[in-house]
Write a structure and sequence with these properties.
The protein is α/β, with parallel strands linked by helices. The protein has one domain: Uracil-DNA Glycosylase, subunit E. It contains 9 helices and 6 strands, in the order ααβαβααββαβαβαα. The strands form 2 sheets. It has a 4-stranded parallel sheet with strand order 3-2-5-6. A two-stranded antiparallel ribbon has the order 1-4. Belongs to the uracil-DNA glycosylase (UDG) superfamily. UNG family.
Length: 221
Amino acid sequence: MNVNIEPSWNQQLKEEFDKPYFASLVGFVKTEYKNNTCYPKGSDIFSAFDHCSFDDVKVVVIGQDPYHGVGQANGLCFSVSDGIDMPPSLINIFKEIETDLKLPFPSNGNLERWAKQGVLLLNATLTVRAHQAGSHQNKGWEQFTDAVIQTISDTKKNVVFLLWGGYAKKKGAKIDRSKHHVLTSGHPSPLSANRGYWFGNKHFSKTNSYLLETNQTEINW
């Protein structure tokens, strides 16, 4: 099946695109987008891959669902488009960066700037129906994104995986920790962060330290 995705990813995942579950998933997504308002817009579904080629990946952040509010989702986990108010989880991410790296709070929540530096911002499910969290779960996206994580783990080395919250930790269970660096903490959502499971994890400075140790360039968070 031809999928409109960045060429290096197409090369890595072409066998996945030919599997029966993926054809079924595409059929489901097309029907949903035709009959309902869904996010992100169709051209942004594979945006995380389009902004960060397979060869460039050095950090992977795993999210769960796209944002389901109007205009929020842009295909990168935790990210919102320019001019959109930052959701609480993203605010907490920036607060941690502010404390950890002494960087100023950014003016917008568009994380394309991270993706262009080699940060794959991967949601487990790449689409959602408007205002219905989790509405596209268990339709095949999780199998596809498991394959993405497995491919990165098997094919690359010295990638930093940031697993925030229980869902992401389960999703990252098969990562080969002997050749990659895995950092875990609570989720940046207010519920988790305000109970002490997020703030102070120093994941952003730890990521950069590991990248330097393995002769890679730091991320400008």
